[in-house]
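Exercise 3.2. Students should predict the tertiary structure of the chain below and write it as structure tokens, then compare their answer with the key that follows.

Predict this chain's 3D structure.
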Amino acid sequence: MALVAAPGTIVFALLYYFGSIYLKAYYTALGVPPEDLGFSIQGVVSNSTSGIFVPVCLLLGGGLVVFLVLGRLGRALAGPERAVLRHRVVVWLLVVGVVLVLIGFPTFVTDTVSVFPPGWPRRFLPALTVAAGATLAVFGVQLHLSENPPLRVRQTPGTEQSWLAGGTLLLGVLALSLFYEMALYVADVGRGDAIVHADRGYPGAPFVVVHSRVRLLHSTQGIRFEDHGARNEPYRYVYRGFRIVAKAPTRFYLVSHASTSYAQHHLVVLPDNNTTWLEIRAD
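Answer key:
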């Protein structure tokens, strides 16, 4: 039972983490503080699929290709007659892998020192470079450890554990780089989805009619104002043309139905108290 529950818990935690990143990037791009919305655990997890589907498919496909290619290389270098060539390949894989890790890893620490140009290359390529380098180095370690000990070239007694420790460290670096890359990708997907939805006029967001005790001061275009006079007190002021994009326990986040561009996005925040009430209508 523990063998099933432990991996399931890890997967659920990862889904929750990536879902929270997606929601934070999405609503932050719209100007809504995601901390105000109070999403349930199920809601956060269900939103994770929007961001991780593509990278997970790429990881599975890329991992399969790398496994097949490097496995074929390992079989081609098997046998005592290829021991020297196998040793050279192991050294080459380790050197190239470590160099790639050292090239990409500084960007994890600081953006001021990087060989990558600004923009998306500096954002995504360092983690991919580290992952590629760690993959090559891990395969070099595996290629060395899978060789028959009597056939190893320049094998010093007692170094087996050092190779295992190095391989474990490289696996950790590989996992860290892939995790970091997926987090960046999910954040960009969340922000991109917010921009696309804003450019399309927030499809699916319901229309609302705002009934207010006081006049609302806003600069949003496309909103029709009506003053029904004292006979309709206390909610005499009516505003038509809003869409609701988010609801917090104490606030409504509204946009104009005429908004069809993220560049012209204006968010109106109304308190959820006795000064206003909202009439929600279907799209």
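Discussion points: The two ends are 48 Å apart (CA to CA). Residues 160-199 form the longest helix (40 residues).
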